[in-house]
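FAQ: What does the model actually see?

It sees only this:
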Amino acid sequence: MTVEQEWVMQNIPEIVGVPRPGEDVQSAARSRQLDLIEFDSEAPAAAPYRESITGIAESTGLSQFVDIDWPDGLAPTPSAPPDGKGLALPAADVLIVTWTMDEGHALARVLTPGADSRDNWRWYTKNFDGIAADMRVGCPARNYGRLGTYWSTTIGDTSVTLFKSDSHMSQDGPALANEQVWRQIIADVSPKWVITTGTGGGIGTRAEVGDVVLSRFVAFDCQREFETLNGMKYSCPVHAPLDHLPTARSLFKYNGGFLPKTNTRPPTTDTAQSSNHGILTTDFFGFDNSVNTYGLQGKGDLSEMGDAVLGMVCKDMGADAPNYIAVRNVSDPQISAAGITLPDQARVAADIYKTYGRWSSVCSAIVCWAIAAGV
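And it is asked to produce this:
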């Protein structure tokens, strides 16, 4: 689908998307990225976004979540509280990493019910001072004084460590400290599989909010701070276990009512069969529009800002690397460029994320469950 003005009027709050004349979409790119990373649907300021879906401004972001009827023996079972700060992440069969505040809320609500990524998950500060020395002042990890938060769960016989990263390729600076974080957490957990998960922008006209792209293919499309990585492509040689994927799609229905009311169908999943249908990692706030301003079309089915770092790290690790897959939900589809400036298109994409990102992330969290259940 392509988001037209009528779609905007029907699906996102009227008070958002106020134009700022003269604003250049890239001059404010890093601050806009940070705004989306830190946006918290549980916060009082997010009431208009919550009310646009539930009709209840006072409700917290996921308080209306409908509990999922999991298959027998496969319900996620959170661990007791992990140990405190500074320690290694717990070893596990699967490491699941997510990135933004609302992605964390959704992943926790699905896989560690009763333990929220913001309020309950434990701080991860191992080697913080050394890694933070390579980070830009003002980035989230340095502001929080941690690399992320974590918890553990089990799904059937599979042990899972979940990590909400405060390190971001787009925020940490040119030293790419996020690469160090990936190496360290993989060494801690020693997983069979790594899943990087969260939201992203749909590329092309097929995607609707809530659709999930699964890809063992990741590629860099870098035109600014990390131009030396531009065009680098990576792929996991092993296909993820997807026997439970049909069940996962059937479980979307429990919270599908919180996705845009004008979606034409229930959310679906697409498993990439090649790099040009995989995940595209940009170093700029790019999004697909009807005139292909950022040249994303044909390079992947979804754009985001970090997953290819995992592919790069795993290639460098060689035979010692875990298997990996990117599981990304479409938080914002292609935007129509008709009669709207590029900065306003960027704002529409951001506002769609703020309204639906927590709920579209429920879909990708359920897909993470399906993969872990098959490991």
